[in-house]
Specification:
alpha+beta; Glutaredoxin; Glutathione S-transferase Yfyf (Class Pi), Chain A, domain 2; 2 domains; 8 helices
Length: about 220
């Protein structure tokens, strides 16, 4: 993506929440400078684009500062795609908004499990606390499989699709779900867009080398 000194997205390369915004930016043809957070476990808001809750993504668009992925997407569509609603963002009905909330909850559970791993916590030692996050993932996926086909938006690449594929790709890549439980509808729905440039170019696989370069401690150690 071409850089822009007036529009900056603070993120990490493999952040699935940030990926939602990156896909929308690319689909809208909006150039944006990517500012990678230097320390994922920092407690300094300055390292997260000034975000006091220490999360990415954060968008700085000239004088406008926006946090949280869905709020950023809303801002981008209201500002640069007024009236078109090409991703069926504003037209979501109640079941579709519920689905987006469930996808977001699964993504949030993934973040907690990954950050605990990276900070040295062992999930098995935390008992119910970490099991609950895994239950959120399992039950959320089951709900999407059972209910998604009935009300999912028809247009190509809806915002629900963007959220779903960011969640699903991240979940599988980091092996945070129960791989013995099939999710055929989710698999098929996300596979439709896998080769789309905005999707393929932001996938966890495409971002892995940069993630390791920026955060060397995450790179697997070579066997001795």
């Amino acid at each position: 993506m071409t850089g822009s000194t007036e529009r900056i997205l603070h993120l990490t390369p493999q952040s699935h929440f940030s990926r939602k915004v990156r896909i929308v930016l690319q689909e809208l043809g909006l150039p944006c400078e990517l500012a990678h957070v230097p320390d994922l476990l920092s407690d300094d808001p300055a390292k997260f684009g000034g975000n006091p809750i220490l999360r990415v993504p954060v968008l700085q668009d000239g004088p406008t500062w926006v946090i949280e992925s869905d709020a950023i997407v809303r801002y981008l569509l209201e500002t640069y795609d007024a009236g078109r609603d090409r991703f069926s963002f504003f037209g979501m009905n109640v079941p579709q908004r519920n689905a987006l909330s469930i996808v977001s909850a699964i993504m949030g559970a993934e973040v907690e499990l990954l950050l605990s791993r990276r900070s040295g916590l062992v999930a098995e030692h935390a008992g119910t606390y970490f099991r609950r996050y895994r239950e959120v993932i399992a039950r959320g996926l089951a709900w999407l499989e059972a209910n998604g086909p009935r009300f999912w938006p028809e247009p190509e690449l809806s915002y629900l699709d963007i959220a779903l594929l960011c969640m699903w790709d991240h979940l599988r890549y980091n092996k945070l779900g129960d791989e013995s439980v099939p999710c055929p509808w989710t698999e098929a729905r996300t596979a439709k867009y896998a080769s789309r440039p905005s999707v393929a170019g932001t996938s966890p696989e495409a971002m892995q080398a940069l993630q390791w370069d920026l955060y060397p401690s995450q790179r697997p150690r070579e066997p001795r």
